[in-house]
Amino acid sequence: MKSKYEVVIGLEVHVQLTTKTKIFCGCSTEFGQTPNSQTCPVCLGLPGALPVLNKQVVEFAIKTGLATHCSIAPRSIFARKNYFYPDLPKGYQISQFELPICEHGHLDIKTEESGAKTIGITRIHMEEDAGKLIHGDTPDTAGASFVDLNRACTPLLEIVSEPDMRSSDEAIAYLKKIHQIVVYLGVCDGNLEQGSFRCDANVSIRPWGQEEFGTRAELKNINSFRFIKQAIEYEIERQAEVLEDSGRVIQETRLFDAGSGLTRSMRGKEEAHDYRYFPDPDLVPLVISPEWIERVRQDLPELPEAKLERFVSEYGIPHYDAEVLTADRAVGDYFDACVKLHGDGKACSNWVMGEVQRQLKDEGIGIAACPVSPEMLVGMLKRIADNTISGKIAKTVFDEMWKSGKNADAIIEEKGLKQVTDTGAIETVIDEIIAANPGQVEEYRGGKEKVFGFFVGQVMKASKGKANPAAVNELLKKKLQG
Ligand code: ADP
Ligand code: MG
Ligand code: ZN
Q1: What atom in ligand 1 is closest to the CA of residue 215?
Q2: Ligand 1 in contact with 204 (CB < 6 A)?
Q3: Is the whole model's pTM more than 0.85, yes or no?
Q4: How far does residue 162's CA lie from ligand 1's centre (Å)?
Q5: Residues 6+ away with beta carbon under 8 Å from 411
Q6: Are the CB atoms for 124 and 70 separated by under 8 Å?
Q7: Is there a single domain that holds both residue 401 and residue 278?
């Protein structure tokens, strides 16, 4: 049954940048180090310490803005967002408010239910992250909290969407697209679990046909695509029930609890902060020249959509294959390298999407750690193409390449896997099998064509899989007809 309410979703994505150092000081951004070992007067918020903007952060922001069709502001301003929390030593976060670096972008998404659709991007701004609280969990430390400021002052981009999404599927499609783009650009490692890619989801519902938006709840603290979908769906149900019962959703921030799959209230609008934003007097306005933007544009890598189009039009592979192969930039590059060496796009995509991906998944490793290089894979594909081995034997060769690191020719030679194309030799085998199975020959000749498969199987077995399948088929047909 169609629901009475239309869903409205807007997302705020926090992307932690892969710069080596923090946004306003030279401290390292490396994850998982000893607490407070990566700090200095600036990121500790000591009085008198002055921030200096990391140029790489600006460059990453421009890249991301260009890749999401934003306009890049020639002049933008850093502002102080004032609030108190123990993980924020300065008592304010340096962010951007009125004049962010990027505005008015958009991304195209696709879902099964609503097809292709464009989602507006309101703005992208740069900001610093806060530190982390570690809550004591040993008998000695229970009840105490510790402050780790290693993460304080690490650079973030906040990407704010328009409230353009109308289902949890659209929200996930949009998020995955953003994720794919920032990882392609190399500005973020995309790790949701470690918190390098975080999302707050704003969700509201309204009766169909109503023009004004309903009151929204903001869902925080969700660290996987699956949980984001779950949290949004729970929230839609919850709001619909509230409207049915009492008629009023209140504006609030809610936390998702992965254990129960529920969201619960963290704070209401009444408790919401007034951040008293004002321009940071320690930082001059950021001026970006058209030449700088142009330089960054020239440097952009090929983005997923362009790569997908090229794979389809230049390499002639199906759209579906191209989509799978471009989902991950490294997989796309691997496939690209294969086709450049081999030429046969479909043969390459079959193997990269098939055996290569399967083995990687089995071993839980990424393609960067793949023991079979594009050169090795293509070395083997060439032996299939020139009939030295059959597609079936190729699987054995592939496994052996994976294990031993040897190339296909060496393995074929060593293990005697060369396909038998010598028709004389195949004929001898066929004759023996026909002689040994008179009953089945009778059946076949009596019109039971299914028995043909039995003979093919027997011949392949007798030749240990090495007989050329096309030759076997042809010769068998001839011989069985008598
Ligand atoms: P805040 O900074 O307080 O979270 P913003 O105006 O920046 O407020 O909006 C944050 C996000 O909420 C944006 O992504 C926007 O698209 C989304 N949003 C705004 N109004 C609604 C609504 N009624 N329903 C769903 N999402 C909304
Ligand atoms: Mg918000
Ligand atoms: Zn520092």
Answers
A1: 23
A2: yes
A3: no
A4: 7
A5: 397, 400, 401, 404, 417
A6: yes
A7: no
* Residues 305 and 367 reside in one and the same domain: yes
Number of H helices, E strands in the chain: 17, 16
User: What is the domain-level CATH number for residue 434?
Assistant: 1.10.10.410
**Residues with a beta carbon under 5 angstroms from ion ligand 3:** 25, 27, 40, 42-43
Do 182 and 262 lie in one domain? The reply is: yes
Spatial separation of the C-alpha atoms in residues 128 and 157, rounded to whole Å: 9
Q: Out of 372, 387, 415, pick the residue that ends a domain.
A: 415
Residue at a domain's end among 247, 272, 292: 292
Which among 254, 259, 210, 207 has a CA at the least distance from the CA of 235? Answer: 254
DSSP state of 87: T
Q: How far apart (Å, rounded) are the C-alpha atoms in residues 444 and 451?
A: 6
Q: Give the model confidence (pLDDT) of 390-447 as tens digits.
A: 888 899 999 999 999 999 999 988 888 887 777 788 888 888 888 888 888 888 888 8
> pLDDT, tens digit, for every residue of 222-256?
889 999 999 999 999 999 999 988 778 889 999 99
